[in-house]
């Protein structure tokens, strides 16, 4: 697939063979079998050209990588933990690429945390002024300015 993606155009077995032979010895039939297998798996499409075929990638390398990541992630029994572990393996360059990608798709870089409800420090009652029918001076435990009652009163 690397060779097919590299040219970004339909390629013949002969073109792939000649490119590979610059690095190592490989048989024409091996390249032909690999490209045929890729076609059967749906990774490349082919069109007849004379007695040969021209092979072209069905998707981009980026789309293929994304599909692999999605497949691996979806098979996890704990997707959040898998993401945390994956992010922990990333280099700073990869983290920057992740931030750039998130910005492109419109995900804010760091979401603002939701504000926590305010509580009175002595009573842990949420927002004592929330009930407009209650006068805070009627209940000294909810009045921040009142002194605690003495025992026995």
From TrEMBL:
Q: Which organism is it from?
A: Streptomyces spinoverrucosus
Secretion signal, residue range per the UniProt entry: none
The keyword Nucleus appears for this protein? no
Q: Where is the composition biased (Low complexity)?
A: 126-144
Q: Superkingdom of the source?
A: Bacteria
Which keywords annotate this record? Answer: DNA-binding, Transcription, Transcription regulation
Q: Which InterPro entries has this protein been placed in?
A: BlaI_family, WH-like_DNA-bd_sf, WH_DNA-bd_sf
Supply the name of the protein. Answer: Transcriptional regulator
- The annotated region (Disordered) lies at 101-153
Q: Which SUPFAM superfamilies match?
A: Winged helix' DNA-binding domain
What's a Gene Ontology MF term here? Answer: DNA binding
GO BP terms in the entry: negative regulation of DNA-templated transcription
Give the Basic and acidic residues compositional bias ranges. Answer: 113-123
Task: List the Gene3D superfamilies.
Answer: 6.10.140.850, Winged helix-like DNA-binding domain superfamily/Winged helix DNA-binding domain (1.10.10.10)
Q: Which family does it belong to?
A: Belongs to the BlaI transcriptional regulatory family.
What the entry lists under Pfam families is as follows: Penicillinase_R
């Amino acid at each position: 697939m690397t060779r097919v993606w590299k040219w970004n155009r339909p390629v013949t077995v002969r073109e792939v063979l000649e490119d590979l032979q610059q690095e190592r010895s490989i048989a024409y039939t091996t390249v032909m079998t690999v490209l045929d297998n890729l076609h059967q798996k749906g990774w490349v499409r082919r069109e007849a050209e004379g007695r040969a075929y021209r092979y072209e990638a069905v998707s981009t390398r980026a789309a293929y990588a994304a599909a692999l990541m999605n497949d691996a992630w979806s098979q996890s029994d704990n997707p959040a933990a898998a993401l945390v572990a994956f992010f922990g393996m990333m280099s700073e360059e990869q983290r920057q690429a992740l931030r750039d990608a998130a910005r492109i798709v419109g995900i804010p870089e760091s979401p603002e945390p939701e504000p926590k409800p305010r509580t009175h420090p002595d009573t842990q009652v949420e927002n004592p002024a929330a009930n407009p029918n209650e006068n805070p001076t009627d209940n000294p435990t909810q009045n921040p300015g009142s002194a605690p009652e003495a025992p026995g009163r």
